[in-house]
């Protein structure tokens, strides 16, 4: 889906420009300015990666694929390539996903997102009461976190 059909173009472009400004110091470039994919399978594969102690590496690679390389992270081939590069068993991963093994975990995450009224990422919930939502400058994040 083209994000420009979902959100005003200026909003999308300004958001990406803001992300690029924040990422500049970390050598992070956001190239994907207007594509939106169904990320359900990517999230389900994330549970598999988590069960095999590779979630952080997996999520970083999915992030790079989506934002940096403009790849469709809904594509099974893209996810398989990422998983394989991390040493994950792609046949086992796909079997677990297709069997519905992780569906209830994802459904629970969606339920919690609704319960906490989470509408953007990232969102941090601290002590089940303080909610920090959206991209923040480090100093702003620290101030909210420490207050």
Care to describe what's here?
The protein is mostly helical. The protein has helices at 9-23, 40-51, 55-68, 76-85, 90-98, 103-115, 138-146, and strands at 123-126, 130-133. The chain has a two-stranded antiparallel ribbon with strand order 1-2. A hairpin with a 3-residue loop joins β1 (123-126) and β2 (130-133). α2 (40-51) packs antiparallel against α3. The longest helix has 15 residues, at 9-23. It is globular, with a radius of gyration of 17 Å. The N and C termini lie far apart (39 Å). The model has no long low-confidence stretch (mean pLDDT 86).
Structure characteristics:
147 residues; two-stranded antiparallel ribbon; 7 helices; mainly alpha; 5% strand; single chain
Q: DSSP helix count?
A: 7
Share of helix, binned: 55-70%
Task: Give Rg in angstroms.
Answer: 17 Å
Give a count of the beta strands, DSSP E runs of length 2 or more: 2
Strand arrangement, largest sheet?
1-2
What structural class do you assign from the helix and strand content?
A: mainly alpha
Kindly report the average pLDDT value.
Answer: 86
Shape call: globular
What is the helix/strand order?
Answer: HHHHHHEEH
Q: Give the N-to-C terminal Cα separation.
A: 39 Å
- Bin the strand percentage: 5-15%
Largest sheet: 2 strands, antiparallel
Question: Which ranges are low-confidence, i.e. pLDDT below 50, for 5 or more consecutive residues?
Answer: none
